[in-house]
Amino acid sequence: MLAYRHAFHVGNPADVLKHIVLLGVLERMAAKDKGYWYIDTHAGAGSYQLSDRMAQRLAEYQTGIGLLWGRKDMPSSVAAYVKHIRTFNAGGELRTYPGSPALAGSMLRPQDHMRLFELHSTDFRLLDATWGQQSHVEVRHSDGFAGLKAMLPPPTRRGVVLLDPSYELDSDYGQLVASLRDAITRFATGVYCVWYPQLQSLESIRLPKRLKALSPAGWLHAQLSTAAPRPDGFGLLGSGMFVINPPFGLHESLKATLPWLARTLGQDGAGKHVLEGHTP
Ligand SMILES: C[S@@+](CC[C@H](N)C(=O)[O-])C[C@H]1O[C@@H](n2cnc3c(N)ncnc32)[C@H](O)[C@@H]1O
């Protein structure tokens, strides 16, 4: 049974990194007229009210988007992200945080398509209520790893896949790598964005190396640490985004972003970042 609900964590530093990189990718996809498919294998509820009891319980958004709201000194990609979040918050007060489906959905053009997978019944219902009736969108109450296969390659031969599992099960790491290996075989030129948690576990530490080995045609790796390692070895240190076939210009745009985010979101001076890439 799935216990993870993204509503408890929404808007935290991990969402900030993930959504800045995702927006950077989608902006560059829209630079060409030809339509693309956006596929979100682990979509969540789509959008979140920060006054909701789940978001309020840990109030993680206060350590993420909340620290950026109202800042005047942001690098351009952070400023673009905050500006985008503001479009969901008429009146200027931070009340709503869009998840990846709402963010991506707001960027789609008539020629683009969106495919969303969500396994949790409640989050699926919320997602389907918002997106289920839109002609260019399909929402599925099924396993995103398995469902991805049948969608590749997309008919337009342009596509972005966000793989954002909850990593509740250790097997998620293996499934992620297997699913990506298969996806790249079917659609080698797709842009694949993988979010992962930075933990003191072997699976988490090894993941970037495993993803690099899958990406001979180019990759980008951005990691943002916001907390110091705990002596007991538990707890989230930060998170990473790994992009296979990153669009041109994304790496450059993140050069000022990552150090700034590490300074601004790092707790008690623990902020650190990694930004590396490979283009053959
Ligand atoms: C980290 S959340 C997604 C957050 C969302 N991508 C965003 O950025 O707003 C992960 C979601 O994946 C769902 N999930 C877990 N395993 C899944 C699977 N195999 N297929 C589809 N959804 C799954 C969980 O219920 C959860 O809602």
Whole-number average pLDDT? 96
How far is the N terminus from the C terminus? 42 Å
Q: Tell me about the biggest sheet?
A: 8 strands, mixed
Bound molecules: S-adenosylmethionine
Helix content: 25-40%
Enumerate how many helices there are, as a single number.
Answer: 11
Which parts are unreliable, with pLDDT below 50 for 5 consecutive residues or more? none
**Shape type:** globular
The largest sheet has its strands arranged as 5-4-1-6-7-9-8-10
Structural class designation: alpha/beta
CA-based gyration radius: 17 Å
Q: How large a portion of the residues is in β-strands, by DSSP E? A: 15-25%
Query: Strand-and-helix sequence, N→C?
Result: HEEHHHEHEHEHEHEHEEHHE
Q: Report the count of strand segments.
A: 10
Question: What would your notes on this structure say?
Answer:
With 280 residues, this protein is α/β, with parallel strands linked by helices. Helices cover 37% and strands 19% of the residues. It has 11 helices and 10 strands. It has helices spanning 13-29, 53-58, 65-68, 76-86, 100-105, 121-131, 144-149, 171-186, 202-214, 250-254, 257-265; strands spanning 37-40, 47-49, 96-98, 113-117, 137-140, 159-163, 191-198, 219-225, 238-244, 272-278. The strands form 2 sheets. The chain has an 8-stranded mixed β-sheet, with helices on both faces. Helix 8 (171-186) links the parallel strand 6 (159-163) and strand 7. The longest helix has 17 residues, at 13-29. The radius of gyration is 17 Å and the shape is globular. The N and C termini lie far apart (42 Å). The model has no long low-confidence stretch (mean pLDDT 96). S-adenosylmethionine binds next to helix 7.
